[in-house]
């Protein structure tokens, strides 16, 4: 089945709409003109009849001949005088057969009617008996008339109406032809920018990510369409760039520990580790690298699950309790550090406890990892004010502050980007894979919260997390 193009559908729709409007309008106009002409003829017959009736009363006692009758009836009307006995006494402006047909027609209500067997003939009957009019018939005999019939041949008016219909049909045909041509031209011109857009879109789909649709300035609708599609192209290009960067970074991060572990194993298989202590050291190094790979894979898997927006295991969680546990663990792992916790009270919310705990662990671990040894770390939990309105608008705030070198302004926008490292001196051996804060941002977003960085070079950095204070 052939599918119609947008251009074809628009042309057919506009032309069809025009045809319907013009045909209906013309038909109604022709019907109105026909009805108007019929009403005019009826009114003229009624007026003529009234005028003749009044004239006969004024001619009481006179003998009326054919010339006088024709003068009263007017040349365009037929006049038939009927005697008292019902015979035709006089016929003016018509033939004998038509006069007989007029005489036999049922015209007793004083209104114009069509005459049987005489197409196009309208007639009206006058009762002129009370006027006691005397007529001189064609034989010169004086007769007393009982009635007069006035007839009008409407065939001339009907022919004029038919001509009007033909003219209207010809006009409609011409108008439709002109409308169709104009519609085709207008639609083609209006949709012409789409041709260029289609070509550019095909080029983009073929792999040329630099092309963009031309943006018309004279058509707001086309302009809006082009801008929207260009925005979609930009988003697609950025997504592909992020994907390529992600794949490159992930493969790079995995390649280093894999290469290291493989090197130690190959050295062992080649007999290069004959000393038992050295062999144990090599296996320990290989296990360390494999452990780093496992952590990286787990982090990537967690980000993938968060990207798919899989449901969280939500339960009531006290953020202050989680912070206390994480700080206590950090004190054991880093005895040379000072960790302080400030919690003004319970901060209960509906959340996934293990993932929120990972948020705290990543933030504290990030602060430890990127600050000088012995530098203090502060964890602050600010419960949502109880008078802050509805529960949906209340938020708990978590702050993790370090006193390290700080983050330059140009780097702050990338802090939560995957595999990003601000300091080039921080390698994967000292700075991690660059996924910790990206995981924080994804987990917080999954809980409907926000993450932001506040930093001043030379004074330290604070990561602020806001989480909705939702409760069951």
UniProtKB/TrEMBL annotation:
Gene3D superfamilies: 1.10.287.130, 6.10.340.10, Histidine kinase-like ATPase, C-terminal domain. Its EC number is 2.7.13.3. It comes from the Bacteria. Residues 188-241 form the HAMP domain. SUPFAM superfamilies: ATPase domain of HSP90 chaperone/DNA topoisomerase II/histidine kinase (SSF55874), Homodimeric domain of signal transducing histidine kinase (SSF47384). The keyword Transferase applies. It is an enzyme of class 2 (transferase). Pfam families: HAMP (PF00672), HATPase_c (PF02518), HisKA (PF00512). Keywords: Kinase, Membrane, Phosphoprotein, Transferase, Transmembrane, Transmembrane helix, Two-component regulatory system. It catalyses: ATP + protein L-histidine = ADP + protein N-phospho-L-histidine. One of its GO terms (cellular component) is plasma membrane. It is found in: Cell membrane. This is histidine kinase.
């Amino acid at each position: 089945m052939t599918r119609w193009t947008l251009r074809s559908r628009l042309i057919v729709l506009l032309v069809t709409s025009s045809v319907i409007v013009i045909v209906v309008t013309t038909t109604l106009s022709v019907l109105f003109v026909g009805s108007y002409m019929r009403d005019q003829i009826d009114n003229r017959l009624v007026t003529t009849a009234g005028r003749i009736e009044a004239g006969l009363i004024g001619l009481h006692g006179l003998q009326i001949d054919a010339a006088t009758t024709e003068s009263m009836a007017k040349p365009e009307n037929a006049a038939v005088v009927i005697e008292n006995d019902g015979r035709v006494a006089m016929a003016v402006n018509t033939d004998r057969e038509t006069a007989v047909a007029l005489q036999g027609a049922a015209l007793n209500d004083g209104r114009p009617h069509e005459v049987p067997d005489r197409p196009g003939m309208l007639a009206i009957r006058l009762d002129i008996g009370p006027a006691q009019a005397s007529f001189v018939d064609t034989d010169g005999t004086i007769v007393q008339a009982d009635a007069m019939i006035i007839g009008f041949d409407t065939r001339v008016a009907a022919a004029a109406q038919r001509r009007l219909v033909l003219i209207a049909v010809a006009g409609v045909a011409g108008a439709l032809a002109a409308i169709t041509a104009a519609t085709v031209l207008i639609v083609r011109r209006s949709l012409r920018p789409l041709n260029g857009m289609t070509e550019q879109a095909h080029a983009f789909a073929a792999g040329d990510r630099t092309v963009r649709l031309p943006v018309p300035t004279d058509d707001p609708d086309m302009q809006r369409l082009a801008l929207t599609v260009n925005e979609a192209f930009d988003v697609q290009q950025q997504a592909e760039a992020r994907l390529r960067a992600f794949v490159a970074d992930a493969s790079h991060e995995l390649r280093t520990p894999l290469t290291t572990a493989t090197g130690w194993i190959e050295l062992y298989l080649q007999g290069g580790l004959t000393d038992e202590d050295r062999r144990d050291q090599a296996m320990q190094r290989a296990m360390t690298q494999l452990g780093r790979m496992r952590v990286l894979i787990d982090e990537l898997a967690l980000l993938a699950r968060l990207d798919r927006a899989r449901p969280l295991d939500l339960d009531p969680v006290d953020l202050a309790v989680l912070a206390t546990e994480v700080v206590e663990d950090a004190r054991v792992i880093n005895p040379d550090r000072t960790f302080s916790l400030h919690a003004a009270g319970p901060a209960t919310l509906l959340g996934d406890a293990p993932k929120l705990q990972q948020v705290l662990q990543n933030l504290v671990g990030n602060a430890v990892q990127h600050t000088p040894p012995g530098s203090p770390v502060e964890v602050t939990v600010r419960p949502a004010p109880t008078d802050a309105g509805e529960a949906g608008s209340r938020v708990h705030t978590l702050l993790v502050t370090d006193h390290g070198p700080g983050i330059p302004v140009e780097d702050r926008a990338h802090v939560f980007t995957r595999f990003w490292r601000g300091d080039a001196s921080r390698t994967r051996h000292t700075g991690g894979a660059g996924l910790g804060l990206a995981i924080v941002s994804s987990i917080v977003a999954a809980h409907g919260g926000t993450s932001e960085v506040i930093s001043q070079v030379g004074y330290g950095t604070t990561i602020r997390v806001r989480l909705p204070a939702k409760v069951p």
